Amino acid sequence: MTQRALSTGFWLVLLTALIALPRITLDMHLPALPAMADYFHARDAQLQLTLTLYALGSAISLLVSGPLTDRFGRRPVLLSGLFLYVAATAACALSDNLGVLIIARLFQALGGCCTTVIGRVIVRDYFDREEQARLLGLISMAMAVSPMAAPVLGSLMLPLIDWRGLFVLLGLIGAVLYLMVYRRLPETRPAQVAAAPPSNLLQLYRQLLRDRYFLRYSLAIGCVYSTYFPFISESSALLQRGFHLSATAYALVFAATISGYMLGANLFRRLVQRFEPDRLISAAIGLNIVGSVTLATATTLLPGEWLAIVLPMVVIMVSVGMAIPACQLSVLQPYGAVAGTASGLFFFIQMFITAVGSWLTGLLSDGTSTALMIMTSAASVLLASSWLALQQKAAPVGYCQSVKR
């Protein structure tokens, strides 16, 4: 089978499913976290470690899978990651100890989150810049459905199959994706891409981390995602225990909040044809600050109203939906010869910042909206300040040729 035998529709469906897999895995269990805490006789903050370790595993996966996919190709690394994902998900389903579950979630992320890098690198491999922008916009819109649908699906299935059954379902999804990749997906790595030898990998990382262009978008996507991740960490226990929402009601409220991401992704898809990505990111940052200020004000003045949390978060999610695809579109353009490595480091920075933020959120968590408000506001300030501090006039020229291969 050649690449030409695959339709654009096939690429869109498969790449969306692969890229969405880590988000589905993260979000499907959110309604079940209080029940899981009760089962393991643990505090809600301890169950948040399953999210923190998942974010850490994701960061490591993203860092490692980038160089591996440049060296060995997109297909073998993707198949290996999906195999590890299925095995770790089975371990999650069988765990009777919270420590085992937390470690299994780490390995689940190590395997499954490689799809984030490889899916987007395949877009970079196969499509021209204009088609990349269109496809990334469509994928971002489709991905917005996954965090909306996954908690609702999880809450509806929870009374029928409990939290273990949710892991079984995730394992089946991973197995189906493995078979699709194995049977249908060809290798897309361009023939001219030669992986850097291991001795040069650290040098390449140092070059990228000293590159203001690369660092600007990497910090932007990490910080903008961190304005939303505290809501993921805190919302399940906060809304179900603090505001007494049922698991299904919580899932619906969560889905309504995430709808802001879909709106932002749709705005990006429509506006990217008329405006440069940097202008869209700047607009998203302004909107993010407005949402964060509104969240801090509303939760202070109306501490007993869950809408004081949800409505500002919708505004923040619109900004996240605009900024993420804009950063993804811009960051890899100058780095074609090292797309996998650059993409892996880019997403590692995003998820490492997220993991640190999630850990700090857990430390501050006290059953109120305080931790959510503090960490969202801090991430918003870091987002704006890093974007302005790393501003430059143009993208790097001839970068790929300057990297010794």
From TrEMBL:
CDD domains: MFS_MdfA_MDR_like. GO terms for molecular function: xenobiotic transmembrane transporter activity. The chain crosses the membrane at residues 46-65, 77-96, 102-123, 135-157, 163-182, 213-231, 243-268, 280-300, 306-324, 336-360, 372-390. It is found in: Cell inner membrane; Cell membrane. The keyword Chloroplast does not apply. It is a multi-pass membrane protein. Its main location: membrane. PROSITE patterns: MFS (PS50850). GO terms for biological process: xenobiotic detoxification by transmembrane export across the plasma membrane. Residues 8-394 form the Major facilitator superfamily (MFS) profile domain. Keywords: Cell inner membrane, Cell membrane, Membrane, Transmembrane, Transmembrane helix, Transport. One of its GO terms (cellular component) is plasma membrane. Pfam families: MFS_1. The keyword Transmembrane helix applies. Belongs to the major facilitator superfamily. Bcr/CmlA family. This is Bcr/CflA family efflux transporter. It comes from Pseudomonas poae.
